[in-house]
Every structure is written in structure tokens, then in C-alpha cells.
Amino acid sequence: MALENSVFPSRPDSLSLPRQRYVEKNGRCNVQHGNMRETYRYLTDIFTTLVDLNWRCSLFVFVMAYAVTWLFFGAIWYLIAYCRGDLDHLEDETWTPCVNNVNGFISAFLFSIETETTIGYGHRVITDQCPVGTMLLLLQAILGSMVNAFMVGCMFVKISQPNKRAETLVFSKHAVISLRDDKLCLMFRVGDLRSSHIVGANMRAKLIKSKQTQEGEFIPLDQTDISVGFETGDDRLFLVSPLVISHEIDAHSPFWDMSQAQLEKEDFEIVVILEGMVEATGMTCQARSSYLAEEVLWGHRFSPMMSLAEGFFDIDYGAFHHTFEVDTPSCSARELSLAAARLDAHLYWSISSRLDEEPTLANQAAKHKRLVVLESDLKV
């Protein structure tokens, strides 16, 4: 129980600290990995590692990759000029150096930059009297192309990542529970602020709650699926306008036995995940949010947002997070279902009893009619 309290403390009151979220409202997963001893695995996929770095580290690696290669080859060019004696024959017009107009380390460094970036100003140029320089020139050209492809590829992928696209996918601040078609439903709203749509959007939801098995094993972050229409296909969204996602609280729902009073005492987190493909780039995008137990409003419904204008539908995003109270039973979905079943049974038996009485009355009427006919025949 000590572990349970440390991971999932009791529901906070006004004096206690707020509950630690598993997923923040902006979608960031609040999980940090510690005591990792196999960090070398990051180097086996260096491309993904560089893409996952923050922008400050990515720019530093980008600059250092070019600076180190320029300095490295610049030092080699300077070493070749020094070993061949080119620096000792700067004023000798009959001497053919390896690289013309290289008179020190700075000029060798500039020649390295010109070679790797294929600038070619024409002032410093390699001669045909230096086979070692020719081989070095080929090596630097090949390695420079590889560095350009790798670093520019990393920056392109990082710039084109759809993470920023997810920021224009918004979720309502609260989830609500109310009746829909005489059934208790858990609902939240999702919308897209951009005019370019998310292609093939689909919705998933998870219940994050501590659990203790019958064998006594404690699972601090147990994940349970919350159906939002997977069986019927309602989880596949046409997200042109804001939609209210509904989870019907039935016998398969984890909220089947939860009443309004129990909701106020519960400690759980609902994680909602919206996935789809960005129409402009064709890349997969994922947006996440979460709702704590105190962010689920019992007996509320979302305010309407859409109105019909001249030739188009007008969406008022000012009402995106607005809710209003509606009459909702405070009992659990199980109790509501049992009450509806008892009512249906009562109506069934009352109707059946009336149907049973109607043939008796009909028989009595027919019997009376036969008696009247019989009496008339006797008189005749």
C-alpha cells in the first residue's frame, strides 16, 4: 500500500497537492527514464537521436559538424604545405606548391571551406604536382557530401515534423457525463483550428488507474481501453467541424458501477489520443490530452457551436469549452439500467394482464349473444 500511495495518492482536497498527471493537457507525456545503462543504443540510430534533440542541441550539432570537418581538413592542408616546404618558398616564383596562395593556417582553413562547400573563388587552387593533395581533395569532397546529406536531412526532418500541427488540434478543458438516447455517456469535444484537414483521423481513449489484482500484484499505471466507437466505426472521424466524442457507459465500460458520488471520490486519468495524416505534408500527426477525475463534470452537456449563415456553416470557437447543466440521474449506469429494466417489466406485465382480460370479456359478450338468440328461437 505504500507503493500505491506514492504513485497514486488519494484524491486531493483543497489543502493537498494536485495529482500528478501521466499526460499533460498539452499532450506531453510526464515520464522520465532513469538509471538507463544501455545508452549506447542511442548511437546505433544516430539519425533519430539527432532528430529527437531539442532545437538548441540540434543547432549546436549542426554547426559543430561543419566546423570540425573544416578545421580537420584545413589542418591537413596546412600540414601538407608545411611538410612539402611550400611555406618556405612563398616568394619563389619557380616553386610549384601543392595549393596556390596557401601561406598559413588561415588560408588553408579557407581553402578547406571552399573545397567542401564547392564555392571555388579561384584564388586558391590545387595544382597537378601534388598527388597527396589530389587524394585529399577527393576524400574531402566525398565526406563533405555525406555530411551535407546527413545534417541537412536531419534539419529537414526536424523542421517538417508534424508536432506543431498537433497544437492546432484542440480538446475541451472538461469531459462531461450526461444522458444521450436514455443512456449515460462520457463525452468530450475535439476540434481542428486549421482549414486544411486531418486525413483518416481516428480517436482512442485510455483509462489510467491504479489496480490491484486478485493475487495481490499492484499495477500503478494500469491502462484500460475506453470504447469511443471502435466496433461501429464511429472512432473514424471526419474532422471538418468540432465533434463531440461519446463513450457509452455500458456493461463493458470501466465506469459501469460509478455514480456521481463515487466520481467525486475516484482517482483516475482519462487519456485521449487523436491520430491522423496531415493533408499538406502526408505525415502522421498525433495529438493527446487528458482529463482527471475532477475535470469530468457530471450532469453537463456541451454548448452548441454551429449556426447556419448565408451559404456556409459558421463555427463559434468561443463556445468550444462551454458546458451547461442538464437533468441527469446521479446513480450509476448499472442502477439506471436496472431501473429501466424494472420499468419495462412492469409495463410488460400490466399490458399482458389487460390482454388476458380482453378475451374474457369477449367470451362473456359472445355467450350473452348466444343466449339471446336461443330465447328468440324458443319463442318462435
UniProtKB/TrEMBL annotation:
The chain crosses the membrane at residues 59-80, 137-157. It is found in: Membrane. It is a multi-pass membrane protein. The keyword Transmembrane applies. GO terms for cellular component: monoatomic ion channel complex; plasma membrane. One of its GO terms (biological process) is potassium ion import across plasma membrane. It comes from the Eukaryota. The record marks N148 as: Role in the control of polyamine-mediated channel gating and in the blocking by intracellular magnesium. GO terms for molecular function: G-protein activated inward rectifier potassium channel activity. It holds the Pfam family IRK. The keyword Acetylation does not apply. Residues 169-336 form the Inward rectifier potassium channel C-terminal domain. It catalyses: K(+)(in) = K(+)(out). Keywords: Ion channel, Ion transport, Membrane, Potassium, Potassium transport, Transmembrane, Transmembrane helix, Transport, Voltage-gated channel. Residues 23-162 form the Potassium channel inwardly rectifying transmembrane domain. InterPro entries: Ig_E-set, IRK_C, K_chnl_inward-rec_Kir, K_chnl_inward-rec_Kir3.3, K_chnl_inward-rec_Kir_cyto, Kir_TM. Associates with KCNJ3/GIRK1 to form a G-protein-activated heteromultimer pore-forming unit. Interacts (via PDZ-binding motif) with SNX27 (via PDZ domain); the interaction is required when endocytosed to prevent degradation in lysosomes and promote recycling to the plasma membrane. Belongs to the inward rectifier-type potassium channel (TC 1.A.2.1) family. KCNJ9 subfamily. This is G protein-activated inward rectifier potassium channel 3. It comes from Seriola lalandi dorsalis.
